[in-house]
Design the sequence.
């Protein structure tokens, strides 16, 4: 009879704390442990290990370990940038959502078994072939065992490539088939690869579970058409590509049919643009599309998180060029990216005339106005009864973006605005880490993008903050009482 996984002695008691504390007590209890000196890294590791061991993946992607694990990369960085008690809030949010899923009847009771590695003839190539066969049949339990064997014999990035061979084609069914393994690998870079044998099993089981057949669409044909595997493709970008990246970003940002974007990218790469340059253009063009979107759905952040994770992959020397190209060229296929296409404004936003009509503000005045405007949005009253996909942004959301554009046009200091947005993200628990992920993605993209283009990311970050604020923030309210904010 299989036994549940038991973790190393130094972390097991903290994992049991996350699993066994009642949801009513978890906010205060987590704060008390952190305030007493429990390191942030250990608390987040315990949160990850607990949600993997004691909550199941339900149909779809809402629930179980998916969102708590996907949020870890953002949470640890946002916590590191904030000071004082505010630095504890992202950690408390992550532990709380993990605890919520563990105690939810929709996701448990569940036990992650202490599975053993399984191979085919103790041969890596044969086991890889068996893994791929199991994937094609949706036999995720077998994939789980094969993964544990391959993890001992391949590098982490080689294993990730195997998962992306599965997740990239399935991106068109759900963005998370791609995002879940990549975000988990970014968390494992922080915790250490020794924990991949536990934490990595959740995305393995998710991406390899049975689905409707998924094709690679036409991206392999595009790769072939522009000879992107045969030519000497430039990897790194430079100042000499600024004009080409700007033109491609603008072309992407103006398009109304997202299905045209893969050919834009492939054509640019075939014309000599670097892989990094194509990723940067996609990211900037994506922020432009996000700003054009009139969505009021706070979960629709994968335009930016999807571009950010792809740029992360482009920087990994161990990954093959083929998987990098395929990942880049299917960005537009994710359902939560495609949703924005149905709600696009006809022209780039914020509208220049709206920004021009604003009263001039100093940096401090703009920071105060942006924070005040978003904070005034009523808590708990912004939950329409219609489905999330039909929610539309209010005029206040677009006004916040216009204020942010004035901030950008004046080239004010980015740091203070980033700090304000980080604190606003800490209030959210409705989106189960989406607000944190979007904030971290736009932060990283701002600093990874050339100065002439980077402000689009922070303007998009302000719009996203205004969309997500005030939906549900009871975890923040409880924590604020404990911390006496």
Sequence:
């Amino acid at each position: 009879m299989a036994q549940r996984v038991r973790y190393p002695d130094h972390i097991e008691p903290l994992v049991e704390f996350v699993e066994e504390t009642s949801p009513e007590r978890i906010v205060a209890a987590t704060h008390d442990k952190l305030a007493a000196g429990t390191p942030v890294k250990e608390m987040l590791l315990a949160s990850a290990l607990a949600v993997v061991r004691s909550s199941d993946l339900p149909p779809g992607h809402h629930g179980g370990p998916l969102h708590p694990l996907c949020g870890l990369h953002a949470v640890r960085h946002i916590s590191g940038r904030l000071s004082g008690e505010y630095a504890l809030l992202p950690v408390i949010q992550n532990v709380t959502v993990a605890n919520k899923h563990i105690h939810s009847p929709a996701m448990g009771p569940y036990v992650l078994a202490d599975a053993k590695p399984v191979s085919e003839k103790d041969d890596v190539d044969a086991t890889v072939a068996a893994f791929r066969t199991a994937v094609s049949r949706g036999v995720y339990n077998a994939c789980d065992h094969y993964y544990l064997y391959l993890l001992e014999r391949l590098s982490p990035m080689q294993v990730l490539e195997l998962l992306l061979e599965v997740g990239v084609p399935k991106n068109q069914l759900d963005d998370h088939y791609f995002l879940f393994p990549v975000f988990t690998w970014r968390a494992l870079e922080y915790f250490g690869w020794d924990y991949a044998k536990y934490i990595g099993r959740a995305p393995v089981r998710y991406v390899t579970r049975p689905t409707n057949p998924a094709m690679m669409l036409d991206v392999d044909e595009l790769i072939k058409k522009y000879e992107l595997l045969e030519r000497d493709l430039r990897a790194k970008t430079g100042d000499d590509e600024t004009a080409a990246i700007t033109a491609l970003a603008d072309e992407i940002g103006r398009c109304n049919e997202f299905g045209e974007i893969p050919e834009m990218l492939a054509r640019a790469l075939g014309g000599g643009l670097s892989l990094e340059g194509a990723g940067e253009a996609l990211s900037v063009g994506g922020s432009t599309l996000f700003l054009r979107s009139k969505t009021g759905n706070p979960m629709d952040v994968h335009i930016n998180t999807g571009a950010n994770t792809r740029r992360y992959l482009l920087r990994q020397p161990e990954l093959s060029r083929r998987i990098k190209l395929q990942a880049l060229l299917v960005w537009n296929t994710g359902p939560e990216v495609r949703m924005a296409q149905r709600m696009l404004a006809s022209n780039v936003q914020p509208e220049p005339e709206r920004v021009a009509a604003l009263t001039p503000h100093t940096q401090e005045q703009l920071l105060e106005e942006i924070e005040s405007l978003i904070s005034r949005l009523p808590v708990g009253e912004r939950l329409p009864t219609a489905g999330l996909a039909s929610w539309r942004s209010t005029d206040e959301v677009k006004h916040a973006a216009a204020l942010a554009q004035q901030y950008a046009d004046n080239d004010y200091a980015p740091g203070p605005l980033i700090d304000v947005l980080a604190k606003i993200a800490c209030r959210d628990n409705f989106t189960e880490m989406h607000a944190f992920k979007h904030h971290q993605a736009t932060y990283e993209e701002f600093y990874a993008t050339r100065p002439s283009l980077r402000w689009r990311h922070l303007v998009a970050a302000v719009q996203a903050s205004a969309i997500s604020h005030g939906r549900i923030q009871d975890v923040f309210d409880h924590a604020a009482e404990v911390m006496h904010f």
The mean pLDDT is 94. Residues 12-103 form one domain.
